[in-house]
Specification:
193 residues; alpha+beta; 2 domains; 2 helices; rod-shaped
Length: 193
């Protein structure tokens, strides 16, 4: 009987050890976000919008938002790494004020940092049209600190936040350590009998 109990405890120990040592796989490095190339611009100016950490091949609808006003811009598709880059010419008759780009997909609703439109419309630009992803000359795109990069819209608050990666890993290791200690104590008690 003792032998059977020890064997079952050793199987349980091996199983718990295997479960605790496996690292969880995560599809992305973080939450989707939008990055913009400028903070201030004149109406009619060109802004580079970059989406990061979306699902691969995800269809995303881009629009320009100001309080209750929404200007639909275009649909873009994220690449295999969940990234897209789009150069967008703002309308020349856009009123001055604070705006955000918004990216909406089946699974995400994300807003860019605020862009301030001010001054008079940009004049004598050769091309004021929206460019395709393949036409964009890639340059340095600013990155933002976590928590600053994307400002979620009020509608996005209903989305459920993902579980924290660090806390779940710590919890798994703590449970595993507790099970190992209990298994060792059980073995020691059984040997004394």
């Amino acid at each position: 009987m003792k032998r059977k109990i020890l064997r079952n405890i050793s199987y349980a120990f091996a199983f718990i050890f295997a479960v605790c040592c496996v690292q969880p796989a995560f599809a992305h490095g973080g939450e989707p976000r939008l990055e913009i190339s400028v903070e201030r611009i004149n109406p009619g100016g060109l802004v580079e919008v970059r989406g990061v950490d979306f699902d691969y091949d995800e269809l995303v609808l881009l629009s320009l938002m100001r309080s209750e006003i929404q200007i639909p811009l275009m649909e873009v598709t994220a690449d295999g790494e969940g990234v897209f880059t789009q150069a967008i010419a703002l309308p020349a008759d856009l009123p001055t004020g604070e705006y955000n780009f918004r990216a909406k997909s089946d699974h995400h609703l994300v807003a860019s940092p605020t862009i301030i439109v001010w001054g008079v419309a940009a004049q004598n630009q050769e091309d004021n049209a929206i460019r395709d992803q393949s036409d964009v000359q890639l340059g340095a795109v600013p990155t933002f600190a976590p928590g600053v990069a994307a400002t979620p819209l009020p509608q996005a608050a209903a989305l459920e936040p993902p579980a924290s990666k660090g806390n779940s890993t710590t919890l798994i290791y703590s449970i595993g350590a507790g099970v190992v200690i209990l298994a060792l104590l059980s073995i020691r008690i059984l040997k004394r009998r």
